[in-house]
Amino acid sequence: MEIADFRLGNIMEHNLPHTIALLTRTPAALNALLRDLPETWTFKNEGENTWSAFDVVAHLIYGERTDWIPRARMILQFGETKTFEPFDRAGHVQESQGQSLAELLDEFARARSESLGQLRALNLRPEDLQRRGRHPAFGAVTLSELLATWAAHDLTHLHQVSRVMAHQYRQAVGPWSAYLGVLQCAGHSSP
Amino acid sequence: MEIADFRLGNIMEHNLPHTIALLTRTPAALNALLRDLPETWTFKNEGENTWSAFDVVAHLIYGERTDWIPRARMILQFGETKTFEPFDRAGHVQESQGQSLAELLDEFARARSESLGQLRALNLRPEDLQRRGRHPAFGAVTLSELLATWAAHDLTHLHQVSRVMAHQYRQAVGPWSAYLGVLQCAGHSSP
Hints:
Two copies of one chain form a homodimer.
Chain A: H1 5-9, H2 16-34, H3 39-42, H4 53-66, H5 68-78, H6 92-96, H7 101-121, H8 126-129, E1 132-135, E2 139-142, H9 143-167
Antiparallel strand pairs in A: 1-2
Helix pairs in contact in A: 2-7, 2-9, 4-5, 4-7, 5-9
């Protein structure tokens, strides 16, 4: 990855209120984009073993249940003495079967709101954010890094949803495909 | 670009109601994501000569005024006999000076709604969608391609906004940057 110094020089440090501000908005943003869209936009993916917008929303719900707050609690309770459970990237598949996208969007809003209530109830002090836990692949990570990742993870999936949907019009746009950056994106987030 | 046949085999043809459904939702999606977010999320960019979320919204407004409907009208009126005005990718800068993001979000919603009213008033028939205009770089393009591009252009900028915002947490996420696809995206849409 080539990032010139000036690019990194000006970026944000982790800031908990900023993280919460973003986490609060994601369900409404996905809802505004996806609810009642024709299913050709929301159920199609980028090919075998990739995700549709529907799959992404299901994955986000699964993360609320099993990833972010559970891992934050583990850091506060066990520190580095207990390794996080590996996150199951296919964990959402069974849970989403038989659900409509509208139901998943409602469920994501509810689950996120609950997670944020739990986060606020932890009353984290600045020193808590420096506490360390143990990631199964990375080793030591801080609570601050976990919470920043929660927000960036929302963004990586918004990035993915916009790419998956744009892919459906790859041929329809004709020669303009050369000008549309989203159609050059190599699918970093999939599956 | 390597796209296996099975990927292209299953994608959508252009469908005007689907295009309109997406175009209708973008202002609300950006509004839900961006309104009242801390300005460190919305005013920071990816470095010199790149755009912030604020810049992207301004650019989308500028496109409503000068690109999509004006070009559609040109195709219907002049066909291939008159070349589109080149789109000014810096055209939004002056217009957005002194505006707040909230004002731009309101203006984008208003401008888009007006554009869609004009699009509906054109009462396009299937044969109209095959009419051709002349693009300054591509040569002949169809009205269908122009309208599909309008939708995909929304998605390319949603993709960009999520990437620009995620960039701000590039360091804050620590080792998780390796798992976040959005942080590997090479900035195809910028500036």
